[in-house]
Amino acid sequence: MPLNAELRAFYEARQQQIPAEIRKIMRRAGQKLADSGQADRALTVGDQAPRFRLPSATGESVALDNLLDRGPVVLAFYRGAWCPYCNIALRALQQHHDAITARGAHLAAVSPQVPDESLTLTEKHELAFDVLSDIGSETARQYGLAFDLPDDLAAVYDKLGFDLQRVNGGHPRTLPLPATYVIDRDGVIRWAFVHTDYTLRAEPADILAALDALGTTR
Questions:
Q1: Distance in angstroms (rounded) separating the CA atoms of residues 87 and 122
Q2: Cα separation, 85 vs 111, whole angstroms
Q3: What pLDDT, in 10s, does the model give residues 27-83?
């Protein structure tokens, strides 16, 4: 099943469990973010990928330049382990990890959560790729992805027990748009998926096709 078909099925089942007033708040916030045009302003194909150095779930310091020394990079931004859509997407990436590495690429995922949360996520889903902590979302901001939750949606997340104050290291309001980039060895973005809708993610098949296309552009 394609990833977004799985995400859609989960969304439809989930809607039946969420009170109508909360659904209304979520829809209103989602529409406001879509109307903001932020996805169109985020970095895209042809842009230079901002360099970063971030801590991994296992305590290592990971720099984009070091990853690019080995080959192309698939860089996926997600909201955190508390987000079920993110977990589904990360599991799909893990299922395609061997296919990504077989193409000479390195996969890394970035969220604003603290390393301990990333480690728990990595162990739970047996992720074989780097899971990096962008506390304060500074790297996401450089890519044009960081945004602040509106007050009413932040209150809903608190009520649902997500505790973003703790898991995001004191930055509870700032999250990244769902985004995935394929970056070539020169640090140029060659493929991009950016969306304001957190229930949509890059299809692994499209990521693999983008990596295959790099072979014809080098």
A1: 10
A2: 13
A3: 999 999 999 999 999 999 999 999 999 999 888 999 999 999 999 999 999 999 999
With contact defined as beta carbons under 8 Å apart, do 205 and 2 qualify?
Answer: yes
User: CATH fold of 3-217, please?
Assistant: Glutaredoxin (3.40.30)
CB contact at 8 A, 71 and 131: no
User: Rounded CA gap, 118 and 60, in Å?
Assistant: 12
Q: State which amino acid sits at residue 196.
A: T
pLDDT tens sequence across 92-109: 999 999 999 999 999 999
10 Å CB burial of residue 21 (0-12, 13-18, 19+) is exposed
Q: Is the pTM of this model over 0.90?
A: yes
What phi, psi does 166 have (nearest 5°)?
Answer: -80, -50
Cα(14)–Cα(165) distance, integer angstroms = 24
